[in-house]
Design a protein that fits this description.
homodimer, about 675 residues, alpha/beta, Chitobiase, domain 2, TIM Barrel, Alpha-d-glucuronidase, C-terminal Domain, 8-stranded parallel beta barrel, 19 helices, 17 strands, globular
Chain lengths: ~675, ~675
C-alpha cells in the first residue's frame, strides 16, 4: 500500500545552500537540550538538513533561559518568539522557550526547502513573534471515523470508536507544528455517541498518549465537551449550570480528567446550537454555562472556548423580521464583560456560516470586554469541498485586515484576535480543518495550501497570500519557476473564480441543501434555516438596513453607514445588505442582473482556463499530484457549468431581462 | 405487545342477518371439499359467521366440477367466476373452481360485515366474473427489511436477509385474497444484494413454504429477477439475451427454481431502467430480453412481466427536445407484436411516474399486439406518503374509464387490461403496495382504503368509489351511519384536495428531491430526471404539442387533437401539454395564475376541514384508530400549508401578478 504524503515536511534533495557553512553549526539558546520539544527540534533539523543538503550540523546549546510562565495570551506570544542570527560559520537561534526554538528550526528548514539563500534570508537578524497566542485547528472528526464536512477520507484519529495512535499521528503533529499551530481540538463540536465518553476511563490512556505526542511539538490538546454530559453520562436529570449537583459533578469529573490527561489545555463547547443542548434549556445565559465550566477548569490552567454559533434553526421562511445574521450579536453582546477570564468566545468570521462572501461578524469589534477567537473554515464546506480549488488565504487576509472601528488604533480583526486591541487575556484564531486519512491529507492536493497557509498566516499575519502560496508550491509541488508561477496563479485567482460562478454579490446559500455542494438557487429559500435570497420578479437581496432587519446598524461607524446605504455598500456585499432591483446600477457600472450574467459566464470560463493551465503542467509535475488535481478540475468544470447555467437561467426566467451580450441562457 | 390489526378480516359481532336462516346452510358447488382453497374457504366462512352472527353453518358440497385448464387470461376469469343463489333456507355457491368458491365466501362475509341484508343482496342470483385475469400486488420490499417507498414500517416478509413466515403471513394472504388479489410479487423490482440470491438454494425452502400459503388462498407467487443474474450469481461475463451461454445458464437455473418452488407463477423484471442492467447494454431489444426468459419459463406454465419504465434518467435539463413522457412509447411501440405470448408488458398509468395527475400512458391504446398490464401505485410515494390522506380509487376509476380509441368498441383502459379489447393471452392490473409491518399495515389507517379498494376495483371494476369507500369504512372503522358518511366524505374528496394544494394543472414534480414528500417547486427543475415545469416570468408548462416534443400526437384521435390544442385540452392536464402564459384563461374562466392561487388556498382550507371532520368523530371511533389518523392529519396540515404558501409565493414572486382576492402571499 502506498504511503501517505509527507507534504512540506517530506524533505527532498535541494540545489541551493549546499555550500552554506553556517548550516554546519547551529547554536540554540533559550531552552534545555533535554526538553522534549528541543529534542524534536534537533532531530527535525538534522533529518531535514541531511535529506535536503547532505549536511549534518553540529548543534550546541547556549543558555537555557527561564521559561516564561503563561498567565495570559501575550505570554504565549512572548514564549514562542524566536530570532535567527547569521554568523560567518554558524546560525544562532534565540528562543524564549523550547517552542520558539522549534519554530526557528522550521523557519530555517523552510528557507532551505524553498531554495532560498540562507545568507540572504538571514543577512539581517530575523525575529518573529507569533501574531496570535492561540493558533488552533478544530477537527470535526467523529469517533466512528466519519468527519462532519470532511472531504478527505475518514478520520486518522478514530476508527470504529477507538483512538488510533501511530506514525501518522506524529507526522500530523510535525506537519502542523511546522507551520506554527499550537492547539488542536481533536473531536467534532457536535459531541454525541462514543465521543460523549471521551471524558471517561474508556479513552483516558489513549488521550494521554496523544497529548504527549502533541506536547512534544508544542501543541496543546483540546477536546469538545457534550454540554449535557451530566445527563448523558452522569446520570443526573439536569445540565443547569447553576445547579449545585451539576457543578459538583463537573468538579469531580474535571479533577479526574486532568489527572488522567495532564497535557490537556481546555475544551471547546457548542451549546444551544442546531439541536445541541445548552444553558438556554434551563433559562440560563451562555455566560452562565461557560463560566461554570471555566471556573472549574481554572485550577488546571485550562480554558473554555465557547462557540457563538447560536441561532434559531427553525425559522419560518415567511418571517422577514427574524434575521439569522443578527443572532450571534443579539445573543452574545448583552453579556459582554460577564465571561470569566479563562473563557474565550469563538466567533465565525461571518454572521452566517462560511459562505464564499460574507461581511465580518459584528461581534468582532462589538465585543469589547470578552476574550475572542476568530473561527474560519478550511474544510471547504461551501467553497467547493476540495473538489473545486479555492485558496482561502486571500479571504482570510481580507477578514483579518477589516477595520472594525472599535478603537482609535489597532482596530482590525487581526488586532483584536492578537489580543492587542483590548489587551485580552486569551485570544487567537481557529480553523475547522480540512484533513482526513486520504494519502495526501486534504483530498485535493491543492487544498493543502489552505492547511499550510492557515498555519502560516496565524503565525505571521503580515505574510501575503502570494508569499504563502509560493512557499506551499515550492515545498510540496515543484521548484520549476514557470510551474510555480502558473500554480500560484491558479491558487491566487481561485477564490474569486469560485465566487463568480456561484453566489453573486454576497447573497450566499444557493447551494444544494444538506450536502452544500452544487447549485440549488431555491434550495434553502423556503426552508427553516434563516438563509434566504428573497428574489422575486423585480429584484433580489435581503434588506438588512435600518428599514429592514437593522443588521447593518450593528457595526461601528462608519461601517454601519456604509453598509446601510446601497450607494456606499461595496458591490461584493450589496445583496447581503439590500434588496435591490435587477436594474440597480452597481459601482462597477453594471446592473445587478448583468453582473450576475457576466460573472457567471466569466467564472466558468476562468475555471476552464485554470484547468487548462494545470493540464499544461503535466510534464513538469509528479504524476500522482498531477492526476489528483486534474481529476478534480474535471469535476470542478461540471460543477462550475451547472452553477453558471442554473443561476443565469434562474434569474433570466425570473426577471425576464435578457443578457446584453446575447449569450445562451436556458 | 399489541397485536396487528385484522382490518376487514377481523370479524366482530354484527346486528343484522342474525335471523337469516339461509346462512345456516351453505352449499358449495364446483370444487372438491378436499381442495386446500376450499378448506380455507370453509373455515373462513365458519369463523366469520360464528364471530359476526353466532351462526355455525352446515356446509355441504355438490358437484366438484372439472377445473378449467388455464392457457390464457380469460380462462382465469372463467375459473374464478362465482354465483350466489339464495334459497329459502340455504345459500348456494356455484364456483367454477376452488378460487371461485373462496371469493363467493368473502362476498357473503362482506355482506354480513357491512350489515347489509343477505335476503336483499342475494334476492336475485348474483354472479361475479372478475374484471381482470391478473390482480396483482407488487412489493418493493428489500431483503434487509427496508421497503423502497414504504411508509408503513418495515417488511413483514424479510428480516435481516431472511424470509419470515408466521401467522401474519397467513393473515396477509387472507386480507388480500378476500378482496380478490390473486398474484403477489414479493420483492423489490430493484433486485440487488441478498435478493439476487432468491433464486438459489439459500431461499428455496422458505419460498416454497410461502408459495404454499399463498396457493391456499388462490394467490400466485411471483418474484422479481435480477436481469444480470448470469453475471452477478452465475459467474458468466455477459447477460446478453442472445448469448447461448446466458440462455443455457437460465435454462438450468429455471429448471432448478421451478422444481424447488412448484407454486411459482412467474417473474417481474425491471431492466434498463434507472441504472438497472438490461438487454440495451448488449445492443438487444427489450423484446429480446423478455422473450428469452419467457421461452424458458413457458414449460412451467409461467409468465414474464416486463416493466415499461425505461427512460433516460440522465437527461440534461437544458435539453428541451428530449421528453421523458415519450420514452415508454418510443421504447416499446416499435416492438409491438414481437413479444412472445407469455410476456406481459407492465405499464404505469401515466407516462411519468405516479404524479397526482398525469394523462394516461399512450402505450395503453398504443400497443395492440402485446399483452398488457396496468401498474398503479397505492404506496403514496408522490401522494402524501400515508401521512396525507389520499384515497386513490377515484383516480383509478378515471384511468380505467379512459377511452383510448384504439378500437371501435371496448376501447377503455379497463377493456384493454381485462383482455377484452385485443383478446389478450394475459392481462390485468398491478399495484405497488402500501403495506408494511406497522400494526395497522398501512401507516395511516385510512390508507387501508387503497389496499382494500385496489383489490375490490381490480376484481369488480364497475364498483363505484363510493361503494368501495363505504365497504371499507363499515368493515374496518364504524357502522355509525353519520360517521360512515363523514369518513366517506373525507376519503372521496381527499385526492382532489391533495391535488389542489400540491401540483396544479397536471404539471407535477414540484416535490422535494429524493424523498418525494413536501414541496420544492424547483427541486427537480435543474436536475437530470426529465421532470421540468419550465416556469419563467411569463408562463409555465411543457410544450408537448406538435410544435414541442410531439408527445400529444402519440395518442389515438380524437385524443391527440384534444391534447394538442390548449383550447380543447382539459384544464387539469393543460400544463402537462402546453406552455402557457399565466394570463391564459382556462375553461373554468380563471387565469392560470389565479387558478394556482385559488386552488392552493382552497386545498389547504379543505385539508383543515377534513381534519376538523375527523376530530369531530372522536367519540364515535376506536381510540387507536382515531389517534392514528388525527396525528397524521396534524402532519398533513403542516405539509398542506407549506405547499400552499411555497407554490403561491413561488409563482407570485416569479410572475409579479397579485392575487385577485388579495390574500397573503409571501
Amino acid at each position: 500500500m502506498k504511503d501517505y504524503a509527507k507534504l512540506w515536511v517530506g524533505y527532498t534533495p535541494k540545489k541551493n545552500n549546499r555550500d552554506c557553512s553556517a548550516l554546519s553549526r547551529i547554536v540554540m539558546n533559550g531552552a534545555s537540550e533535554n526538553d522534549r520539544i528541543v529534542k524534536n527540534a534537533v532531530s527535525e533539523l538534522k533529518d531535514g538538513l541531511k535529506a535536503m543538503l547532505d549536511i549534518v550540523p553540529d548543534v550546541t546549546f547556549g543558555m537555557a533561559g527561564t521559561d516564561i510562565k503563561v498567565t495570559k495570551g501575550a505570554d504565549i506570544q512572548d514564549r514562542e518568539e524566536y530570532s535567527i542570527t547569521l554568523n560567518t560559520d554558524s546560525l544562532v537561534i534565540d528562543g524564549k522557550s523550547a517552542s520558539g526554538i522549534l519554530y526557528a528550526v522550521f523557519d530555517i528548514l523552510r528557507t532551505v526547502a524553498c531554495e532560498k539563500s540562507i545568507e540572504k534570508v538571514y543577512a539581517v537578524k530575523k525575529t518573529v513573534r507569533p501574531s496570535n497566542p492561540l493558533r488552533m485547528l478544530n477537527h470535526w472528526d467523529n469517533m466512528d471515523g466519519s468527519i462532519e464536512r470532511g472531504y478527505s477520507g475518514k478520520s486518522f484519529f478514530y476508527v470504529d470508536n477507538e483512538i488510533v495512535i501511530d506514525e501518522r499521528t506524529k507526522d500530523y503533529a510535525r506537519l502542523i507544528a511546522s507551520v506554527g499551530i499550537n492547539a488542536v481540538v481533536i473531536n467534532n463540536v457536535n459531541v454525541k455517541d462514543a465521543a460523549s465518553y471521551m471524558i471517561t476511563d474508556r479513552y483516558f490512556d489513549k488521550l494521554a498518549q496523544l497529548g504527549e505526542i502533541f506536547a512534544g511539538y508544542g501543541i496543546g490538546l483540546y477536546m469538545c465537551l457534550n454540554y449535557a454530559s451530566t445527563i448523558e453520562i452522569g446520570g443526573l436529570d439536569s445540565a443547569d449550570p447553576l445547579d449545585e449537583k451539576v457543578i459538583g459533578w463537573w468538579k469531580e469529573k474535571m479533577a479526574e480528567v486532568f489527572a488522567k490527561i495532564p497535557t490537556l489545555k481546555g475544551f471547546l463547547v457548542k451549546a444551544d446550537s442546531e439541536g445541541r443542548p445548552g444553558p438556554f434549556t434551563y433559562g440560563r445565559t451562555q455566560a452562565d454555562g461557560a463560566n461554570m465550566l471555566a471556573d472549574i477548569v481554572k485550577e488546571y490552567g485550562a480554558i473554555i472556548i465557547w462557540r457563538c454559533f447560536v441561532y434559531n434553526c427553525k425559522q419560518d421562511w415567511r418571517d422577514k423580521k427574524t434575521d439569522r445574521a443578527r443572532a450571534g450579536y443579539d445573543n452574545f453582546i448583552p453579556m459582554d464583560g460577564d465571561y470569566h477570564d479563562n473563557v474565550i468566545l469563538q466567533i465565525k468570521n461571518g454572521p452566517m456560516d462560511f459562505q464564499i462572501r460574507e461581511p465580518i461578524s459584528p461581534l468582532l469589534g462589538g465585543l469589547k470586554k470578552t476574550n475572542q477567537m476568530l473561527e474560519v473554515q478550511i474544510a471547504q464546506e461551501y467553497t467547493g469541498q476540495q473538489i473545486d480549488v479555492c485558496y482561502l488565504i486571500p479571504e482570510f487576509k481580507e477578514i483579518l485586515g477589516f477595520k472594525t472601528y472599535c478603537s482609535e488604533n489597532d482596530d482590525t480583526v487581526a488586532d483584536i484576535i492578537s489580543g492587542k486591541t483590548f489587551n485580552s487575556r486569551y485570544s487567537g484564531i481557529a480553523a475547522v480543518t480540512n484533513t482526513g486519512n486520504d494519502l495526501n491529507w486534504t483530498g485535493n492536493y491543492l487544498a493543502g495550501a489552505n492547511l499550510f497557509g492557515f498555519g502560516r498566516l496565524a503565525f505571521e499575519t503580515e505574510l501575503s497570500s502570494e508569499q504563502i502560496a509560493e512557499e506551499f508550491v515550492r515545498m510540496t509541488i515543484t521548484q520549476d519557476d514557470a510551474a510555480v508561477k502558473a500554480i500560484m496563479d491558479i491558487l491566487l485567482r481561485s477564490r474569486e473564480v469560485y465566487e463568480r460562478y456561484t453566489c453573486p454579490l454576497g447573497i450566499g446559500w444557493m447551494v444544494t441543501p444538506a450536502t452544500h455542494y452544487g447549485c440549488s438557487v431555491d434550495g434553502y429559500e423556503y426552508d427553516r434555516w434563516g438563509t434566504y435570497h428573497r428574489a422575486d420578479h423585480l429584484g433580489i437581496g435581503v434588506d438588512r438596513t435600518d428599514k429592514g432587519t437593522g443588521y447593518a446598524l450593528l457595526y461601528n461607524e462608519p461601517n454601519a453607514s456604509m453598509y446601510n446605504d446601497p450607494e456606499k455598500c461595496p458591490d461584493e456585499l450589496v445583496l447581503f445588505f439590500h434588496h435591490l432591483p435587477y436594474t440597480h446600477v452597481l459601482h462597477s457600472g453594471k446592473t445587478v442582473i448583468q453582473h450576475i450574467y457576466d460573472t457567471h459566464f466569466e467564472g466558468y470560463a476562468e475555471a476552464k482556463e485554470m484547468a487548462a493551465t494545470w493540464d499544461s503542467l503535466k510534464d513538469k509535475l509528479d504524476a500522482e499530484i498531477y492526476e489528483n488535481v486534474r481529476e478534480r478540475f474535471e469535476r470542478q468544470l461540471v460543477n462550475a457549468r451547472e452553477w453558471c447555467d442554473q443561476v443565469n437561467s434562474y434569474f433570466f426566467r425570473k426577471s425576464g431581462i435578457p443578457d446584453e451580450k446575447g449569450r445562451e441562457i436556458w
